[in-house]
Amino acid sequence: MNIPATSGVEHRRQRGAAIVEFSVVVVLLLVLLFGIITFGVILSFKQSMTQAAAEGARAGAMGTELTASGLAATAMVQPVGAFGKTCNSGGLTCTYPVAACGGSSTAKCVTVTVQYDYENHPLLPPIPGLGLLFPDTLTSVSVTQING
What is the pTM for the complete model shown? Predict the structure, then answer.
């Protein structure tokens, strides 16, 4: 039984190749995993923004005076879910102008816009290369006619 002298060297080379292949695959899988997690967090935050805008518009529509509508809208938009973001701080901007609705000159509507600067205030630490896939700004708008 003759065993070639190079079999041990080739076995070590194959072990080294397996480690390199494993490290490449693990890096790709981790980037994919963190991308999915980041996308889920952004989607959850966007849903919280949409809910906050709708609540602000609903509260603003219940006011009888235009200034009361703006104050009610501000009060309702303040919390954005469990993310601890408030209006006009930490990248979150809230506006709530009151203007005439559509073609009607008598009806007034409150438009609540909640905008988040994700580019400068990411919710999670940025992952190199994934920044191109995520939006720079998240925006939610809700319009409601004012009663009264």
Answer: 0.74
